[in-house]
Amino acid sequence: MPFNPGIEAWDSTLRDHTHKGPNQAGNKSLLSFRSDIGVPGYTGYIPSQHGIVLPVKGFTHTGRPVDTFFKETLTTASVEPEKVKISEYAQEFKKVPLDTKPLNKTGGGYWFSQRKLMDGKPFLASTVYQSEILSSAATVDQQLGRTKGLVTTISGYEVARQRAQSADTTHSTTKASLGATERPATAVTNAGEVVGYQTTYHKMVLQQPTTGGAAAAGYRAPRGTPSAPIVEQRYQTMPRAMPPGLFGQIPTYRMDYGTDGSDPMERTAPGEKFQSRMATCRDLAEGTVRNTNHLPGYTGHTPASKFHELARAHADAADERMDAKIDMSLYALDQFSRSRVPHYTGFKPKAPRNITLIQPSQGPTTATTYGAAAHQATKSGVPGLDNTHYNNSAEGTMQFFHNAGEYISDNGLSNAQLYYKTVRPGDGRFKMAIPSKATEYGSRFKATNSLV
Known about the structure:
This protein is mostly helical. It has a domain at 128-152 and 154-198. 26% of the residues lie in helices and 3% in strands. It is built from 14 helices and four strands. The strands form two sheets. A two-stranded antiparallel ribbon has the order 1-2. A hairpin with a 5-residue loop joins strand 3 and strand 4. The radius of gyration is 48 Å and the shape is flat. The chain starts with 29 loop residues before the first strand and ends in a 30-residue tail after the last helix. Residues 163-182 are annotated as: Disordered. This is Flagellar associated protein.
């Protein structure tokens, strides 16, 4: 195919005879040029029915041979590792210079030859035979000495101390145990068994008049006070019971069902005009559908309520709902139907039909590389549609007895996911309903419909 002689003056690459090195297009490369719709700056895929093949190199000189080291480096960097042919010896047994490097402190790692052991601690443990049999007396005295003056919960030490202080092991030991100030409620029988037990909580809380209440030994009820109700008396006797009036309001169960033995008719409305459809547990559902009209089967958001400020703002319908599809289609959706390439921000002439075949009167320019390629493309015209690999509808697809394959476009799937992620069905509408433009949150709600 002849070239324009004026192309070389504009530093064109159509007749470039310089080889660019390994892993390049080659010496006889072909360029697929789009001949029907020219999009400036677009370098993507061109279908065969819309493009022609143009040779861009026609010289056979290979240039200076590439050094072996650089060839291996470029091949390893550009080709996938699993496709590079490496022998089994190089993968398993070949040694590199780092494998034979002598070990030193600067080579990294923890070297056992350089470590320093810490000084060991002296062995102070003894056997059970030595501590329990040979030195039993000293061990008992040491343990009892550590418990002197302490209020412990182990009654055996207290009983042993009291038994050692008294020669009588029957009545005097029992009397001393019951009268001891350190361990009250701990007694010893004639056989030496411990009767009863005591906890720190029982001694410091329940038996103190200031904290134990009526159950304490030194508690005195105030004079002249009326008798407390049953709930108050129960709380004084059982401190772990719930204090009356803890939350300062009537419980929900009493408000809905009343107290034990109460008359249900006393809680009814005195007349028909005082009756409403409000729930008795409306205090637990402020600003929700529990306090307003109910639609059969509807579980969405109903904003009309006097308790919720945001719900009241939704019901006023002050803002108009935006059409998100129109807003996002200007930059995200596929606009190939209007000859627009997504995310392309280059120059596009404002012409009714920007097609290469319909050129101005002077024809396409040959001063640039793109113009020269367009000039070559217009000489032969647009090639016909190649239907070699198309299916023949008269012969059938030979897939009548098994499921045909299905192909999902990645671009179409991603665009659909992006669209429904931004414009998803909002709250407050049925699924089959069309999004309303009346309000920002859906269809219009009237605050007068609420019975709250």
